[in-house]
Amino acid sequence: MTKIDKSKPVMVTGANGYVASWLVKKLLDEGITVHAAVRNPNDEKKIGHLKTAAANSPGEIKFFAGDLLQAGSYKAAMEGCELVYHTASPFTMDIKDPQKELIDPALKGTADVLNTAKEVASVLRVVVTSSCAAIYTDAIDTVNAPEGRITEEVWNTTASLDYQPYSYSKTLAEKKAWEIEKSQSQWDLVTINMSLVLGPALNPANTTSESINILKMLGGGELKMGAPKMGLGVVDVRDVAEAHFRAGYTPEAKGRYITSAHDTDLLEMGAILLPKYGDKYPLPKRAMPKWLLMLIGPMANKLFTRKYIKNNVNVPFHADNSKIKKDLGIEFMPLKDTMEDSFRVLIDEGIIKGK
């Protein structure tokens, strides 16, 4: 049991990220001082929304420079903090060199932040933003898991440097985190294992997340002939921020937490938007047949390999989210609200154009 003092500052790595921005806003709204570690503390485009959030809240924000690949660069931001949130990690599928672009920053960054926490005497708890990707690679893995759904006991064993390297990077990084946690007794570790995070970005014009790309694909016409019934989990970014907050400040919180609100698929996600946006935007109305995807998928998108299609299309996703509901009292938002709010922001920003 670890009780964190709310009068002490809290460090957030990658503080201007999609999830982290909402977490920082939540901390500021609670009157907490945030040590925001970002790559460039002078880049107004990327941190202006956090300054605005601080100006409109009782909390205070202080910016620090921090880089996942620069050893010791988070130490200054961590000094005096009892609670550390490590959210910084690349989330992209469009990569040329998975080792350099995904594995190294995820693994080295996690090792550096947690080893730094061993050196900073004030630290009592570290919350790491992990992913359901550290639990499974493909929807078929959830079907093959005990009782046909993933739980916190399950680890990803099917990703590799060559197949789904993003999932591989999250698995290696979280395993490293637990390894370092076991090497000391000063602080405890909690991980938030999120499924696909959707919901409005606080800084949409400068948000680089695969989540935005999926929404653009649904609303931009790429899938107007049909969307694959690709099984996945979805959770709202605002619920993810709340989960992080509670994981930090609930004394009894421990271990991993699957943070996934809805078992769904790409076609259902598009269908939810049809009543409100279907007349103006080329949203998918039907399922794309698996055989057709097998033919055109690998040509249309290098991610859609035949193996990927076989393991995910027309395959349901099932995750057990009972632990986070029970331990942290999380109540998830309806999928309709998440989808509509996400889409509205992309329309307002001109990222998605109508028919």
TrEMBL record:
<protein>
    <submittedName>
        <fullName>Dihydroflavonol-4-reductase</fullName>
    </submittedName>
</protein>
<keyword id="KW-0560">Oxidoreductase</keyword>
<dbReference type="GO" id="GO:0016616">
    <property type="term" value="F:oxidoreductase activity, acting on the CH-OH group of donors, NAD or NADP as acceptor"/>
</dbReference>
<feature type="domain" description="NAD-dependent epimerase/dehydratase">
    <location>
        <begin position="10"/>
        <end position="253"/>
    </location>
</feature>
<dbReference type="InterPro" id="IPR036291">
    <property type="entry name" value="NAD(P)-bd_dom_sf"/>
</dbReference>
<dbReference type="InterPro" id="IPR001509">
    <property type="entry name" value="Epimerase_deHydtase"/>
</dbReference>
<dbReference type="Pfam" id="PF01370">
    <property type="entry name" value="Epimerase"/>
</dbReference>
<dbReference type="InterPro" id="IPR050425">
    <property type="entry name" value="NAD(P)_dehydrat-like"/>
</dbReference>
